[in-house]
Hints:
By secondary structure, this protein is an alpha+beta fold. The protein is built from 2 helices and 10 strands.
Amino acid sequence: MLGVKKIGWFVLLSLFVLVACSVNEKEQSVSQNDGGLQVTFTTPKKVEAGKKTEYTVHVSRNGNPVADAEVIVHLEMADMDHGLNGFRGKMTESGVYKGQAVLPMGGDWIAYVKVKRGSEKVTKRFEFKAEGGMMSPEELEKSGLHENGSLKNPDF
């Protein structure tokens, strides 16, 4: 009977590890709703400095996707100024806006998601982390960034 208990604990522990690992493999999403537009900002599980990363913004009202919004995401390091970085969201399906950006260094970052729909304008603040060190001047140049990490040709 003692062997059955040990096997039961082993199975339970294995299931816990599997669930924990599968949760860690998912994207990280945070939503904010102030009674008007609901905005969700999603990053991949792992954001790495120096790598082009795709971010997703979901915009809805009362659970319905908003397809006629203008979405601009400004990415700013929490403790350091790297100038203008971010993207203009492109709608890929109703209420879903995507864009890519390269962060010049790892650390704590803030995404300011600006949504404009007609005369309504909201800005939501989302915090996330990026891994890695500072990109070299050559890497910055190759990625389309100035030496300070700002975009060379922003379209927003």
